[in-house]
Amino acid sequence: MKVLFATSEAYPFAMSGGLADVSGALPKALRRRFVGCRVIMPLYSNISDELKSQMKYICNITVPVAWRRQYCGIFEAHMDGVIYYFIDNQYYFKRDGLYGFYDDAERYAFFSRAILEVLPHIDFKPDIIHCNDWQTALVPVYLDVFYKGNDLYKDIKTVFTIHNIQYQGKYGHELTEDVLGIPLDKESLIDFDGCVNFMKGAIQCANKVTTVSPTYSKEILDPYYSHGLDSILKEFTYKLTGIVNGIDCDVYNPAEDELIYKKYTAQTINDKNHNKKCLQEELGLPQKKDVPIIGIVSRLVNHKGFDLVKCVFEELLKADLQFAILGSGEWEYEAFFSEMAEKYPDKVGLRLAFNPTLAHRIYAGSDIFLMPSKSEPCGLSQMVALRYGTVPIVRKTGGLNDTISDSGDGNGNGFTFESYNAHDMQEAVWRALAGYADKKGWDVLRKRAMQCDNSWNVSANAYIGLYKELLS
Predict the structure, then answer these.
(1) In a shared domain, residues 195 and 124
(2) DSSP 8-state assignment for residue 414
(3) Which residues pair with residue 349 across a beta bridge?
(4) Average pLDDT of 242-267?
(5) 168 close to 232: Cβ distance less than 8 angstroms
(6) Does 285 share its domain with 307?
(7) Cα 386 from Cα 449, distance rounded (Å)
(8) Minimal CA–CA distance to 393: which of 410, 358, 356, 418?
(9) pLDDT tens profile 95-112
(10) Measured between alpha carbons, how far is 472 from 468 in angstroms, rounded to an integer?
């Protein structure tokens, strides 16, 4: 079985969010299970020189972009047992950042077409192309429109994974022929709700559609979560399944993590106290061993639940606790947390940045991890927190619902609340603080959290089952 994993980002080469973590970890897990999985992604200019030095030039070709043909260089690199292919075009990918440019539609139309065009030039003919999010959503469309009559391509199956349905690749119809190169008689494949919609095309053309958690696969059939795509998803429900993501347990391992202050295991969990003390020192907080730290590592945006946090934050600060907050995002929340850090310097440690080292230290040094998302397709932070013995508080949505269960029954691994309501979240925080006060019970809970298996083992096996179903 051969799988080409098509992605716009992958750890450690280029990262902007959870997709990079998945793209870096799932192919490794598949390889360990004797699946021939390789990765293909753009060759961005901001990939480090150290990583670029490990790449080998294969050849260059030209790729059709509507009525034009564009240069496409093909490079190869090996990382952790996985072969990566990189698509080079400096006009499209020599940018400061990955996304958010005026010509993103053309950039990723080129990339999607290149994924198919390079197959005769690499020593790898996939049985399945596994596409991810809107940036590769045109691959199943192009495969159906241009390549199915070619013997090299006719048996290739496609899987399309929705990591976040909010970002669909929506553009005006004027792009159909002149930029995307799709004939007008095939425009219906990508036409939806009065515009071009890349993700709709993938849902219609791919052989299987997956989401990154079972709960999210059900939620997106509801208009509240679907961002307009519920009708097309209901039409193709027979293709749809949810497989919860895992985390890379090599990257997130408190027993081996070089980024944290002191390594520890479930058996030496008291060494979390040293990490807590050092985290307090780094963030300028009073070094109080018995004061619980609530950690937040997130993009500071509305759908992550920060309107709830903002509503009751000062009420929470009346309790004997501290916050360790890392993230950046919408001005409203950056300004709010900056004001809180200035007003309550003994209780709020804030860094408005993307800092992987500090993120690891917050996971290791915090006691509680707060993740009150309005929607969360899968979420990785709650699973990382478990790995470090930091007890999550989450809202029951998407992958948070699939990975965190309330400890009120004596068996759960965190604290949950259901309705999207600030005071329900606040009540979950109060319950967590009460749990923290019971030192013996808290020790049991955080050890239970560390024993949760959120590795890619189960998820990779589920994907293999899906691939076998397709090929049978």
Answers:
(1) yes
(2) B
(3) 324
(4) 94
(5) no
(6) yes
(7) 5
(8) 418
(9) 999 999 999 999 999 999
(10) 6
pLDDT band at 409 (very low <50, low <70, confident <90, very high): confident
Say what the pLDDT of residue 163 is. 96
- CA nearest to 402, candidates 391, 390, 413, 388: 413
If pLDDT is split at 50, 70 and 90, which confidence band does 466 have? very high
DSSP string, 173-237: TTHHHHTS---GGGGGGTEETTEEEHHHHHHHHSSEEEESSHHHHHHTTSHHHHTT-HHHHHHTG
> Which of the 8 DSSP states describes residue 438?
S
- Domain ranges, residue 368: 269-453
Residues near 343 by beta carbon (within 8 Å), at least 6 away in sequence: none
Strands 240-242 and 368-371, how do they pair?
unpaired
Residue 40 lies in a domain: yes
Cα distance between residue 96 and residue 367, in whole Å = 36
Contact 219, 399 (CB under 8 A): no
Q: Is residue 14 domain-shared with residue 156, that is, in the same domain?
A: yes
Q: How many domains does the chain have?
A: 2
In a domain? residue 255: no
Is-contact 166 302, C-beta < 8 A?
A: no
Residue whose C-alpha is closest to residue 54's, from 31, 82, 30: 82
* pLDDT confidence band for 287 (50 / 70 / 90): very high
Task: Please tell me whether residues 399 and 434 are part of one structural domain.
Answer: yes
Supply 319's token pair: 């309790």
Say what percent of the chain tops pLDDT 90.
96
Query: Other CB atoms closer than 10 Å to residue 264's CB: what's the count?
Result: 22
Residue type, 430: W
Antiparallel, parallel or unpaired: β 415-417 and 391-395? parallel
Q: How far separated are the first and last CA of the chain, in Å rounded? A: 11
Summarize the confidence of residues 75-79 as an average pLDDT: 97
User: What number is the average pLDDT over the span 18-31?
Assistant: 92
Whether residue 196 sits in one domain with residue 296: no
DSSP string, 226-268: HTT-HHHHHHTGGGEEE------TTTS-TTT-SSSSS---STT
Q: In what order do the strands lie in the sheet with 2-6?
A: 56-65, 68-79, 82-88, 36-42, 2-6, 128-132, 157-162, 208-211, 240-242
Q: How does the average pLDDT of the chain come out, rounded?
A: 96
- What pLDDT is attached to residue 458? 87
Mean local confidence (pLDDT), 317-334? 97
Residue 435 lies in a domain: yes
Dist. CA 142–CA 109, nearest whole Å: 9
Asked if residue 263 is part of any domain, the answer here is: no
- Whether residues 277 and 239 share a domain: the answer is no
Do 275 and 175 belong together in one domain?
no
